[in-house]
Amino acid sequence: MSTLPIGTIQPMTVSRTIDTGYVLTKDGHDALVHHNDTESELEVNQQVDAFLYNDKKGNLIATTILPNVWMDVYDWAEVVEVMPHLGVFVNIGIAKEMLVSKDDLPFFEKVWPKPGDKLFVTLGKDQKGRLLALPATEGIVAREVEFAPEELMKQTVSGTVYLTDKEGSAIITTDYHRGFIHRTERKTEPRLGEFVQGRVIDVKDDGSINVSLRPLKQDSMESDADVILKHLEASNGVIPFSDKSDPEDILGTFQISKAAFKRALGRLFKEGKIEQREGKTYLK
Questions:
Q1: Collapsing DSSP states into helix, strand and coil, what is residue 119?
Q2: Residue limits of the Conserved virulence factor B-like winged helix domain (predicted)?
Q3: Does CATH number 2.40.50.140 belong to domain 146-212?
Q4: According to CATH, what is the number of the domain 217-283?
Q5: Closest CA to 120 of 157, 168, 170, 180
Q6: Which of 195, 208, 164 minimizes the C-alpha distance to 182?
Q7: 2 — pLDDT class (breaks 50, 70, 90)
């Protein structure tokens, strides 16, 4: 068995040609390069950089088409396939697609990435020594991102979700700033790996930013009011909510904050469409 480390890029020497490609050698260990794993013809004794991995039979395979992700090197990798019982496969720039295990994905599959989404990953190994793509931890992201300037306040930013949990979603923006989207600042929960666009609502002292995916208050009030009306119509004209209701109950039902809920109620009151009695809201 080879002692050359898979998941790494190694300087190697072309030792001979074979029908299917070339044999590369380093420190007495061989690795096969198939013809479709090199961008040009190789010559015996030529020095090349090669990325190493194992095929399904455990054979050591090399490619001189270098990936953008390898051991301890992080970059974005596009999701190409989703398999609920396994995880998702990503393209790191070579023919072999790498698995991101379901153990490293959110518990709820509804926020798993879809094909075309991107994950910020490096390579690692499972307990059997097989290569996996591993999503970046918060510590790694902190090392990779840039300090956000105060001038970003109220600006529009775009980024990719690298973390999602019950409190909200975290993104890396296109300018490599870390952004956090609180659950009250979105109408639907974005997927891991989804590309989103929002506006900066706070630039924090630690150089990160808070981002909202919701429209401005004056623009969101109408749509929030429509949501409340639809709930009323679907509930025979009455809902057990008022401007005194619990913020968590409001968020769980309408996916808006209590402040936004109260603004929308106020609009509906002024329009004469609703009334409140005994902690409930009624459709007129």
A1: strand
A2: 226-283
A3: yes
A4: 1.10.10.10
A5: 170
A6: 164
A7: very low
